[in-house]
Amino acid sequence: MTVGVRPARKADVRRLSAVLARAFHDDPVMTWMLPDAADRARALPRMFATMTRWHFLARAGAEVASRDDVIGGATLWDPPGRWQSTPLEEWLMTPSFIWAFRSRLAASQKVVDAAKETHPEEPHWYLMVIGTDPPVRGAGLGQALMRSRLDRCDAEAAPAYLEATKPDLVPYYSRFGFDVTGEINLPDGGPPMWLMWRAPR
After folding, report:
1. What pLDDT digit, counting tens, does each position of 145-166 carry?
2. What predicted TM-score, i.e. pTM, was given to this entire model?
3. Is the pLDDT of residue 65 over 90?
């Protein structure tokens, strides 16, 4: 079946956030932030919907991949020089984040702070999130999403950056031209994250 990639729209937010929530349910960093599985299942759709609605749609950084018009994967990118949220965006997103993380809000903030401290200063496209629905993994949706934005990076001669949250994702991203440039070790026994940079081709 043909995989289609297109910019996300407001009408896609609910489906997109549900797909990303399932994709990240067993992610080590998300599991560390929200150890209880029921809490993760409740919080992640709200978190992804909030970020998409108030941050990524305004930057034209959200894309979805689908087969037969069913969304099965999504990416959330920030364009060069615009990866940090504005004060207004922070104000709009904070109530939902408090609702989603509750007693684990401090742990989630530690992840955000650690990522900010190591974020590159050189302008780049920032891949904050990529995920595919577990039932359709291996069907080419993730690859189509990566190629869509990386082709644009190459056309603009712009580098790209991401943080990998699983060891097996490092070789996956390496296939697209990303190289490991560092590592974040989260506090309080948190899992590592690998910093990866891609020069334009």
Report:
1. 999 999 999 999 999 999 999 9
2. 0.93
3. yes
Cβ neighbours, 10 Å, residue 188: 8
What type of residue is 2?
Answer: T
Q: Strand, helix or coil at 113?
A: helix
- pLDDT greater than 70 at residue 1: no
pLDDT tens digits, 87-97: 999 999 999 99
Query: How many whole angstroms separate alpha carbon 139 and alpha carbon 67?
Result: 10
Q: What is the CA radius of gyration of the chain?
A: 16
Each residue of 120-130: pLDDT tens digit?
A: 999 999 999 99
Distance CA 134, CA 27 (A): 12
Class of domain 4-198 as given by CATH: alpha beta
Lookup: tokens for 184: 């974040």
Query: What are the domain boundaries of the chain?
Result: 4-198
Q: Which residues, listed in sequence order, are joined to residue 82 by a DSSP beta bridge?
A: none
Cβ atoms of 56 and 77 closer than 8 Å = yes
What CA–CA distances, in Å, run from 154 to 36, 41, 147? 41, 36, 10
